[in-house]
Amino acid sequence: MIVRNFLQWAQKATAAQRAEGAGALARAYLYSEMDAPTRRDSEIALMSLLDDPSPVVRRALADNFASAADAPHSLISALASDQSDIAAPVLSRSPLLTEAELIDCAAVGDAFAQSAIALRARVPLSVGAALAEVGAREAAISLAVNPGAELADFSMRRMIERFGDDGEMREALLARPWLPATIRSELVAAAAASLSAFVIDCAWLSPERAERMSREARDKANVMIVAETAVRDGRAGVRELCAHLRTSGQLTPSLVLRALLSGNRDLFEAALVELSGLREDRVAGQLRDFRGAGFAALYAKAGLPPKLLPAFRAALEAQREFGGVLGGSGEAQLSLVMIERVLTACEELNGGELDRLMALLRRFEMEAALEQARAAAPLLTAPEPERETYAPVIDMVAFEAALAEAA
User: Fold this and answer.
1) Distance between CA 402 and CA 390 in Å, rounded?
2) Contact 100/127 with Cβ under 8 angstroms?
3) CA 182 from chain center: how many Å?
């Protein structure tokens, strides 16, 4: 009788009054003790309110039932399929919606509805994959910043493919904890491509120079990622990243040489294993005698350019000689002393055939010298007490300069 009276009253009430009444009926259904007939009549009344022409009435239902675990499932499904501002509370909170229903709502919803799904307390892998595939930009960013969203590597890769040129999207993915090294590398490549396209469109740089700067910046970032991966995941992680770099066309001779000149031998060894197809122990054995014919055969089997062989041998020799001096910083930053030792060795062999290699080494030398100057300049202008505190760093700069001069 009460429900029947409610429906008769609703026919004459204003939209605001109906919304208030809908909320009261919803709370009564959820929290009051009702006998079976009254509960069934209440469900009928609630379902009839879904046809109300005013969205504020349906929004009142969505707000009250959004988090309810014992709401009528058909009511929740109907609200989830309503216009996005009504569906959003249900899509973002309802525990009754199944993965299949969420995927279906993501496929037909707009950016607002998709973002509501992406910001749920827990987003399953399948729902995350659907949003990565069809979600709007805003939904993809919401998914990336949500720590409760389960994202497979292929889903993040798809998001990069679709929105990799968007800086906010890249930043959101980079902020995710324990981001796989392969995804970080893809984000670096996307950022480099985006910046290169921007400077070319602005006519600030020629396409050739922009492409070179983009490639070298990408290589530098990849060396840093390899160094961090070696610490976090060991050789297995470096091998996996190296395989990804090869598949994506980023495992270039210049990247491998840069890594070696940064004191990072892990990438060099992993690249030889990946490119040659030999076992790690065989590659390690040949590397111990890098002056011998066995290393030359391994180098050729890996498909690396023959003209770069002297540079790799000189870099390995310099690493053996200065490895203890370089310390941990050499794993991600070019070492000026190693580069100058390799330059000296290659100049002695150059008869015009190594000109491109020498140009590459000179660019490495310029980059390393600039990084060293950036690190040393603040120390040289610091007050005396601070200079004394950082005296070992200044001494290292002088030591590397002396080694370069002796070479």
Assistant:
1) 19
2) no
3) 8
pLDDT value of residue 10: 81
Q: Six-digit token pair at 58?
A: 């349906």
Residue 402 pLDDT: 47
Tokens of 77: 């499904």
Q: What is the 3-state secondary structure (H, E, C) of 101-167?
A: HHHHHHHHCCHHHHHHHHCCCCECHHHHHHHHHHCCHHHHHHHHHCCCECCCHHHHHHHHHHHCCCH
d(CA 186, CA 366): 27
As a whole number of angstroms, the distance between CA 64 and CA 66 comes to: 6
In percent, the amount of the chain with pLDDT more than 70 equals 89
Place of tokens 């006519």: 203
Structure tokens at 123: 């987003």
Residue 345 carries which side chain, given as an amino acid letter? A
Q: Which residues of the chain have pLDDT under 50?
A: 324-330, 390-399, 402-407
Q: What are phi and psi of 148, to 5 degrees?
A: -90, 0
d(CA 161, CA 139): 15
26-63 pLDDT, tens digit per residue, is: 999 999 888 888 889 889 999 999 998 999 999 999 99
**Residues ≥6 apart with Cβ < 8 Å to 209:** none
Decide if 393 contacts 375 (C-beta within 8 A). yes
Query: What's the whole-model pTM score?
Result: 0.79
Q: Please give the structure tokens belonging to residue 178.
A: 């324990």
Which pLDDT value is given to residue 63? 95
Q: Residue 143 CB: number of other CB atoms within 10 A?
A: 28
